[in-house]
Amino acid sequence: MEIDISINVLPIKGRANKEIIKKLSKYFNVKSSNIEIIHGKFSITKSVKIQNEL
User: Is 1 part of any domain?
Assistant: First the structure.
């Protein structure tokens, strides 16, 4: 699945990644702690892992 996300946060000290996780958390209705960036922490394109709570 591919999703485009726009943010208005500068990529300083991981703030942009935190904002992306926050938006994904709201979109998929899961806790932020269940979302992990597994590839691309320092690039525009990222791969994330989302664990569903059972």
Answer: no
